[in-house]
Amino acid sequence: MGMETFGRIAFYIGLVVSIVAGWVQIGATGVAVLAVLGIVVGLLNVTGKETGRFLIATVSLVIAGVALREVFGAAVANILTAYIAFTAASALVVALKEVYSIQKIR
Predict the structure, then answer these.
(1) Cα(82)–Cα(31) distance, rounded to whole angstroms?
(2) How far apart (Å, rounded) are the C-alpha atoms in residues 5 and 44?
(3) What is the pLDDT of residues 18-69, one digit of tens each?
(4) What are the residue boundaries of the structural domains of the chain, listed by start?
(5) 3-state secondary structure 10-31
(6) What is the DSSP string of the chain?
(7) From residue 4, how far is each of 13, 66, 91 by CA, in Å?
(8) Taking the CB of residue 59, how many other CB atoms lie within 10 A of it?
């Protein structure tokens, strides 16, 4: 199994865990698992060419998720909260890679 496949599987597992979090209390351990999966996704799935689009999409997702959590009820709020934790970890890794890339060029 290649790294690309591993990254894709990590993304799908993070998505499924986020959805399950809508109905099952995942606790701190579940959030930590989502963060680790997000880091893996950020390292393996986002290329340099996709960085800008990914970060803009992540910021949009976080803002929309936070704003809509209260609108749709507890299950959807829990899903959005879990998915935001997963995506934010990915965004952190991608942003750090981009900062490193910018500093390395200079």
Answers:
(1) 7
(2) 9
(3) 999 989 999 899 999 999 999 999 999 988 888 999 999 999 988 888 888 7
(4) 3-105
(5) HHHHHHHHHHHCCCCCCHHHHH
(6) --HHHHHHHHHHHHHHHHHHTTTS--HHHHHHHHHHHHHHHHHHT--GGGHHHHHHHHHHHHHHHHHHTTTS-HHHHHHHHHHHHHHHHHHHHHHHHHHHHHHHH-
(7) 14, 30, 18
(8) 13
